[in-house]
């Protein structure tokens, strides 16, 4: 997405805006956020294995919480869920069944 793209209005995260403006694609930005979230939760788990009181403000560090963190970052970066027509499609295309 280019800096003058009207969809940039959907991007709440300043870091994502800077990354778009630097020429990164939405996929590259998403990979970066997901990677950072995975490394963070691994560091939290490692730290808490050594000291259960480590990272008190991080949260539970569960897979579900980590997934919510990733989804929140993607939404802040302008990603949106698919439209409802996509959600109503069958799991297996009729031609393949």
- Would you tell me the structural class of the helices and strands? mainly alpha
Gap between N and C termini: 37 Å
Largest sheet: none
The averaged pLDDT comes out at 83
Task: Furnish the topology, listing elements before pairings.
Blueprint: H1 14-21, H2 26-50, H3 63-76, H4 84-87
Written overview of the protein:
The protein is 53% helix and 0% strand. It is mainly α and 97 residues long.
Please summarize what this structure is.
The chain has 97 residues and is an all-alpha fold.
Features:
97 residues; mainly alpha; globular
């Amino acid at each position: 997405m280019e800096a003058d793209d009207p969809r940039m209005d959907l991007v709440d995260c300043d870091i994502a805006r800077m990354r778009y403006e630097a020429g990164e694609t939405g996929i590259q930005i998403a990979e970066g956020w997901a990677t950072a979230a995975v490394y963070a939760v691994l560091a939290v788990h490692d730290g808490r294995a050594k000291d259960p009181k480590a990272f008190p403000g991080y949260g539970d560090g569960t897979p579900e919480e980590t997934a919510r963190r990733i989804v929140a970052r993607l939404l802040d970066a302008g990603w949106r869920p698919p439209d409802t027509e996509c959600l109503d499609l069958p799991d297996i295309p009729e031609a393949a069944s």
